[in-house]
Structures are given as structure tokens and as C-alpha cells.
Amino acid sequence: MACILNIETSTDVCSVAVSENGTCIFKEEDHSGPNHAVKLGVFVDEALSFTDNHAIPFDAVAVSSGPGSYTGLRIGTSMAKGVCYARDLKLLAVPTLEVLCVPVLLRHELPDDALLCPMIDARRMEVYAAVFNRALRPVRATMADVVDQTTYKEFLDEHPVYFFGNGAAKCMDAIDHPNAHLIEGIEPLAKNMFPLAEKRFLREEFEDVAYFVPNYLKDFVALKPKKLL
């Protein structure tokens, strides 16, 4: 396996975690607001000191790749690249919406045919969302959704769908379907990134440190949702 520095800054929460061989061995989180410019450097320095003091060499840095806040993703990506350059480490990119799914899959009992719809708030009745099955296989790709009663109807008519993330609660009245379920309190956190980061590490799905750019909210265009084949 690997020792990975995980960085998550896609929303107002700033978090850093270190994972080694499938276990989280260090974590720091700030939930008080968009304080990434102040907190992230401190958290990363503490993580590096922790591993250095325990003589644990890093193998890679994983960063949440969006969608999310432009400023938050830019700060997180810059920090991840800086550590990669300084320590000659590989860079891994983990989609934010997949990160949101991890605590739901680990801590909630879901039906076999359940679908997951993580949502990031984009103000008003717009969210950035994707639809996954329980194996985290995309059923519908990430895109901008203007949410009304018909937005997810094709999925809701066939499956129980679980909505979560900071854009989900505002959408439930508009969705209004018996198969729609809200899971509250789900945030993208670095401590939940490592199962996804380690899988990418084993597959050698590394990013080009010089040219990697995260998926900012502006990169997604509002389109009519379509199922993936």
C-alpha cells in the first residue's frame, strides 16, 4: 500500500489527513468557514512533521479535484503541487462527489438497488451533482442541475435515491418523490479520501503535477441529465 497526504478544500471546510496502508493515522479539520488560506498551510505542516517524526515516508499527495469553490480548489491544488515538487511525490486527483459518497457507503444501510446523488451547492436551485450506484460506478456524469420535480425523475421512478452534500437539503421540496431520501451532515473531508486515493495509487492513475487543474464549478455546463451507457 502507500502513505498518502490527503487534502480537501472544495467547500467551506478545510481538512487534511494522512493515510497509511488503509488506515487514517493523522487528521486536522476546520469547520468554521472558508479559512483555507489561513488553515491549510498549518495543517499540512503538522502532517509533514507528524510523518517525519515517525519516520514514515510519503508516497503521494491526493487532492480533492472538484467540483467546488474556485478559491478553495485553487488553494488546495497549489498546496498539493508544492508538496509534490518539494518532496518529489506523485499527485493523485480524487473527485469531490466521490469523496462525499464514502461516509454514506460506510455508515448507512442502503438497499441493493440504491443510487447515490451527492450535491454541491451552486446557489438558488442549482447544484453540481452526479449519480452513482453502490459500487461507485457513475450512472450519470457530473453536471450542473437546475433542480425541479423532473430533474431526477427517471432515476427515482426505478430506484431509491439518496441525496446528500451541502446542496441537498434545499432540493428536497422541489424533488418531492417517495423514493427520494435525504442524508444530512455529509461533508467532503480528507479523512474520507484515502480509500479512493489508495485505489488510484495502486492503479498508477497519477496526474501531471505541472499541468493538473481541478474541475471548478464554472467548468460544468447545465445540460439535460443523461444516463451513462
Task: List strands and helices in order, with pairings.
Elements: E1 3-8, E2 14-20, E3 23-30, H1 36-53, E4 60-64, H2 70-87, E5 90-94, H3 96-107, E6 115-121, E7 126-133, E8 138-146, H4 153-156, E9 161-164, H5 172-175, E10 180-182, H6 194-202
Parallel strand pairs: 1-4, 4-5, 6-9, 9-10
Antiparallel strand pairs: 1-2, 2-3, 6-7, 7-8
Which H/E pattern describes the elements? EEEHEHEHEEEHEHEH
Q: Which structural class matches the secondary elements?
A: alpha/beta
Mean pLDDT, all residues: 93
Tell me, what's the shape? globular
Query: Strand order within the widest sheet?
Result: 3-2-1-4-5
- DSSP summary: helix tally: 6
Low-confidence stretches: 221-229
> What percent of the residues sit in helical stretches (DSSP H or I)?
25-40%
Describe it for me?
Helix 1 runs parallel beside helix 2. The strands form 2 sheets. The protein has a 5-stranded mixed beta sheet with strand order 3-2-1-4-5, with helices on both faces. Strands 8-7-6-9-10 form a 5-stranded mixed beta sheet, with helices on one face. The protein starts with a strand and ends in a 27-residue tail after the last helix. It is globular. The chain is 28% helix and 27% strand. The protein is built from 6 helices and 10 strands. A hairpin with a 2-residue loop joins strand 2 and strand 3. It has 229 residues and is an alpha/beta fold.
